[in-house]
Structure prediction request, 312 residues.
Amino acid sequence: MPKIDISKAVVRMKGVYPHPHRSVTDGREKAALGNVAGLTQFGVNLTRLKPGAASALRHWHEREDEFIYVLEGELALIEDDGETVLGPGDCAGFKAGVSNGHQLVNKSQRDACYLEIGTRAPIERAHYPGIDLVMERDEQGTRFLRMSGEPYPQEL
Amino acid sequence: MPKIDISKAVVRMKGVYPHPHRSVTDGREKAALGNVAGLTQFGVNLTRLKPGAASALRHWHEREDEFIYVLEGELALIEDDGETVLGPGDCAGFKAGVSNGHQLVNKSQRDACYLEIGTRAPIERAHYPGIDLVMERDEQGTRFLRMSGEPYPQEL
Prediction:
């Protein structure tokens, strides 16, 4: 059945970044909608940010286009040039390879909710302006490195 | 600026199917949001259907994943197995290569609006169950054919 039963979506609440960056996404819930329908070419998440939570560290992707559409609440879109407030019906797109890091932060007093769509590239690298961190993904998996190429230590 | 100025999106109102199928999308308006941000890997349209309008002929794609999220109004999702009513917050996904044709029809008395996302495959073929029609796209462009491979005649 192509209609997606949202209650069957896997909801991810745990952050993925290494210490000391992980807490930036505390208060974020991602429901992976596209996976319920078996989509593989792009991901679709219904993401909720509690007050104070961020979508991610400020980042940009080398190979994956991204798009977000705000459904509820108010979000600050933070980029190189500053902040833009987004509300319901507002949307933004982040073309692969454009080195303007972006991040959504819920600076309001109530939850915000948005759809996020991103291509799934088998090989990818993400950059985090101002932070000594790089994400790499390839056939061996996903890993976080320092800009020197040194791996982050395993967390205790 | 990654925030998308929706007023700058190209709005397509004209149908693309050959006669006698073109009128199925009369009353459909597609605003190409993703293009405003320069996205190329997938398309994002904000699509409005007036009462009686359909999203497309009932179809399925060989190579492109599709996803829709209803923002406003009520839509009938028509597939091989029948109809499912979708309202705001409902969504559906159509995995590439699954031969279950789908179509959204606004059978209500007021406008309906949804986001549609689809991968952009350079080479593609779409099938239209029950209709003698095939769409082909490759480096030479997009064309509609009969199932025999014979091209549809140019419209007068």
User: Anything to note?
Assistant: Residues 61 and 126 of chain B are 5 Å apart (CA to CA). Chain B touches chain A at residues 1-4, 6, 33-34, 36-42, 44, 64-65, 67, 69, 77, 79, 81, 84, 86, 89-96, 98, 100, 102, 115, 117, 119 (CB under 8 Å). Chain B is about 5% helix and 40% strand.
